[in-house]
Each structure stands twice: as C-alpha cells, then as structure tokens.
Amino acid sequence: MAAEQKVMRAIRVFEFGGPEVLKLQSDVPVPEPGEGQVLIKVHACGVNPVETYIRSGTYSRSPTLPYTPGTDVAGIVEAMGKHVDHLKEGDRVFTTRTLTGGYAEYAVASGDTVFPLPENLDCGQGASIGIPYFTAFRALVHSAHIRPGESVLIHGASGGVGVAACQIARAYGLRVLGTAGTDTGRKVVLENGAHKVFDHCQPGYMDEIEEYLGEDGVDVIIEMASHINLARDLKLLAYRGRVIVVGSRGSIEINPRDIMAKEASITGVSLYSSSKEDFTRSLAALLAGMEMGWLRPVIGPSYSLERAAEAHRDLIEGGGASGKMVLVTS
Predict the structure, then answer these.
(1) Tens digit of pLDDT for each residue in 296-306?
(2) DSSP state of 30
(3) Reduced to 3 states, what is the DSSP secondary structure of residue 294?
(4) How far apart (Å, rounded) are the C-alpha atoms in residues 108 and 102?
(5) Per-residue model confidence as pLDDT tens digits over 210-231
(6) Nearest to residue 316, comparing CAs of 11, 20, 48, 70?
(7) Are 278 and 106 spatial neighbours (Cβ–Cβ below 8 Å)?
(8) Distance (Å, whole) CA 30 – CA 314
(9) Could you give the angle at the alpha carbon of 183 between the alpha carbons of 182 and 184, nearest 5°?
(10) Are the beta carbons of 297 and 178 closer than 8 angstroms?
(11) What is the DSSP string of 147-192?
(12) Distance (Å, rounded) from C-alpha 224 to C-alpha 301?
C-alpha cells in the first residue's frame, strides 16, 4: 500500500486580482525535495511589495496559475535531496528563494539558496533577509557604487528595504539620512544607522531636507516612491549625484535639465536582474554582516497564514511602515 500523502496549509492563487484572491487551503500536498533541493518546515515568510504586484497580474513576470506566493522563508530543514552536503535535518535555515512558494507550512528551495541561520537571529529575522537586504545591497553597492564618506538619503527608511539600506550604508561609512512617516518609524530609522531622520508626512519636508543639506546636496538617494519624489530628488543631488530607483507605483514628469546641470544619473534596480556573480558577492558581504552583528532585521507586523490577504492590504494601503512584515505559520 502506498504511503499516505502528507498535506499542509498553504496560500493558493487561482486568478490574478486583489488581496481576496489569496486563498488558504488545508489539503495542499507537501512538496518533496528533488536532487540538490531542501524541504523546509516554514516558521516565517517575508511579505514583500513585489508579491502584491505579481498577485495583481501587473508585474512583468507572471507565474503559472495556480501558485503559492512567497520568496524569503526561515525555518527548519525537514528533508533533503541528494547532493546537499552543507546542511542536515533539524538545522535552522533561511533561504533567499523558494521553488514552491513560502506562504505555506512547507517549502522546497534549491540547496544553493539555503543557508544556516545564525543563532543571534530568530526565524522572523531570517525571513526578512532575502529580498530586502539583497535589494538594498544591490542598490547601494552595485548600482550607486557608494564610497566611504559620501552621503545617502533613504526615502521610506523604516520599511524592510529601508532599514537594510540604513544598516548597510552606515557599515560602509556613509553619512545616512532617512525619512519615515510615524514617530515609531523615525525611531527605528535612527536606531538602525541614520544620523538624521525627516517626517515625510509633514508638508514641506523636502524643503527641510534641502535646507539641511545646504549647497553641497546629497551624493546618493535610494528612492522607494519615485512616482512621488523623483522630480524633487534631482534638486537635492550633489554634482554627479545618483538616484537609485527601488520602487514606483506610477509615472512622473521630470525636467531633464536637472540631470544635465549636475551630470547626475538615475538608475533602476531589479533584484531579478542580478547575475550569479552579483548574488555571490552580495551574499558574502551580508553573511559577514550577520557575523559582525550589524545586519539585524527589524520585524514589524506579523500575520498568520489565515490573514495573508489582510497583510497584502496593509502593505499596499498602510501608511508608515515600521520594520519588515512577515507571515508566521504557528
């Protein structure tokens, strides 16, 4: 008699649309790891903005329906396929990419994307490393080519990518400015590497930043909401300053003369365009950050699998992020 198929709870998406298309099912077969793969018992999964774009059907890449969302998970190694030699069953791990989706009680990932989770980080923090820290590192180091002694302005610095950018920029010797929309968020920004923080919900806050910067301007801007800020960002830049566009929810009109006068640049960042070499270099730096202790994700709201749709609504509509949003399975 064949062994009974193990089942799990998982979020499934059968059609693209609003948060309501995230359906919790309790009879989804537990995936089995193939050669070079790892089955992880998921304790936490990060909730990232890109997952809301994919779910809505507006992203440039669409998965085959039905699918389970989720990329960044942390948990315990449940089983392994052949040729996975760096892990053992029972290890605490995090992964930067799943093959079967992370909004579930179990997920399969390729072994080369699964790493031991340091004892000084819990599973919520482990699930907050992948997209936020690799995106922030790519933006600052690969795209902006930051140099010690430069200055950086991080818009939306209290969210997952923003906190990661603050920590990385400070570790690399930059003068760090950030913005956040709540008292709690601004406190988080200051506690995670920023020298100065501004309230982006306050009318005229860009004028305040401009006055603070003076004639020198800022060398690098990490922009999470370019559809709102990009035109004004260009006026804040120093000569040969760089705006790195991490996020946008629409279009905006800019004056190219603002780029020409300062010989400035605008560069977009897409984590999915990273090469294997980019990933390896980012990983080496971020693992060192965990060892040294400066890489410490800040956890924000936590939701159960049953509340995945609510998490997506809050991520889209909520004002004033404070830490990384995660789903927990128990």
Answers:
(1) 999 999 999 99
(2) P
(3) coil
(4) 9
(5) 999 988 999 999 999 888 889 9
(6) 48
(7) no
(8) 29
(9) 90
(10) no
(11) -TT-EEEETTTTSHHHHHHHHHHHHTT-EEEEEESSHHHHHHHHHT
(12) 19
